[in-house]
């Protein structure tokens, strides 16, 4: 099979649009798609300080590589969750990825910071639940403490489609109201954006291979059986039957998202009496989960 735009052998055949592309034209296509997402949703400006939340996996590795290639001012943050046999391996990949693009890397080790790793805490909350709360809190506080303008994550269209699908099934309208490629900053909440919002996991894997990015393929041991993975399987089956389902579903949601905006709770946002960060109650979820008595200091020394 030949590339649609030249006589070279095809590197990949896209499902939507249905075109074969050689390695060079695929890289060009992928990067143009990401740049268009940044511009369409006005994710950030050239003069903003950008913190990329990096995990060692393909998504964050690719988004940090592309933003560096686009000459954005980026630094990376890796949160070592203390998951034995997994987190340290991810850290080694993160170090290689940041060295490859010559970008500063900051590492926060949960076990050193909080005394326990993810999976070791005695709590009634599911592991993935308090892990998510911990990652969101630390990435936001690190960005806030160190004057970053925006936090970038590697969420792609497969992630977004499965998230929307799951929340529609359960009619979690408050989550739907806030879902999208950009979550504006407010007060001590730093703006969060998703440059890979309109590219698929398959395209990300192909791009990583095309430009020589090495990444962790292991899954977190606590993610086994996660319902979001089942939602992804369902969405992928629909995509095979009708290519373009994911992008149409997500873009269609964005056009109708205003229907859910009235579901956002307008309650007073307090300052956590422990750490001073935004909280719905007297103590924020992070400080409550980890039973903290004083704020964690995440400023760069």
Low-confidence stretches: none
The name of the CATH topology is Rossmann fold
Number of strands: 10
Work out the radius of gyration.
20 Å
If helices are DSSP runs of H or I spanning 4 or more residues, what is the number of helices?
11
**How does CATH name the architecture?**
3-Layer(aba) Sandwich
- Ends apart, CA distance between termini: 54 Å
Beta-strand share of residues: 5-15%
Largest sheet descriptor: 6 strands, mixed
Mean pLDDT: 94
* Overall structural domain count: 1
Helix content: 40-55%
CATH class: Alpha Beta
Binding site for Zn(2+) 2: 272, 275, 284, 287
Binding site for Zn(2+) 1: 3, 6, 22, 25
Binding site for ATP: 53-55, 59, 79, 154, 159
GO molecular function: 4 iron, 4 sulfur cluster binding; ATP binding; metal ion binding; transferase activity; tRNA binding
What are the main properties of this structure?
single chain; 301 residues; alpha/beta; Rossmann fold; six-stranded mixed sheet; two-stranded antiparallel ribbon; 10 strands; 4 iron, 4 sulfur cluster binding; magnesium; iron-sulfur
């Amino acid at each position: 099979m030949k590339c649609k735009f030249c006589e070279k052998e095809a590197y990949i055949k896209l499902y939507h649009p249905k075109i074969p592309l050689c390695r060079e034209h695929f890289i060009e296509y992928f990067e143009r798609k990401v740049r268009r997402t940044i511009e369409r949703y006005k994710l950030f400006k050239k003069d903003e300080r950008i913190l990329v939340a990096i995990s060692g996996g393909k998504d964050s590795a690719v988004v940090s590589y592309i933003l560096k290639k686009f000459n954005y001012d980026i630094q990376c943050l890796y949160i070592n969750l203390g998951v034995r046999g997994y987190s340290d391996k991810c850290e080694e990949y993160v170090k290689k990825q940041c060295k490859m693009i010559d970008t500063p890397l900051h590492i926060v080790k949960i076990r050193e910071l909080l005394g326990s790793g993810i999976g070791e805490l005695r709590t009634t909350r599911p592991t993935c639940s308090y892990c998510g709360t911990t990652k969101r809190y630390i990435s936001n506080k690190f960005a806030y403490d160190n004057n970053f303008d925006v936090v970038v994550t590697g969420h792609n269209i497969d992630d977004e489609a499965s998230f929307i699908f799951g929340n529609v099934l359960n009619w979690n309208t408050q989550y739907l109201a806030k879902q999208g490629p950009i979550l504006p900053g407010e007060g001590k909440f730093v703006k969060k954006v998703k440059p890979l919002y309109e590219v698929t996991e398959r395209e990300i894997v192909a791009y990583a291979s095309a430009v020589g990015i090495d990444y962790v393929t292991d899954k977190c041991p606590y993610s086994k059986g996660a319902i979001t993975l089942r939602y992804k399987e369902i969405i992928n089956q629909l995509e095979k039957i009708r290519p373009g389902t994911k992008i149409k579903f997500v873009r269609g949601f964005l056009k109708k998202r205003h229907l859910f905006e009235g579901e956002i709770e307008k309650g007073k946002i307090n300052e956590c009496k422990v750490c001073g960060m935004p909280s719905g109650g007297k103590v924020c979820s992070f400080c409550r989960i980890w039973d903290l008595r004083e704020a964690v200091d995440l400023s760069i020394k």
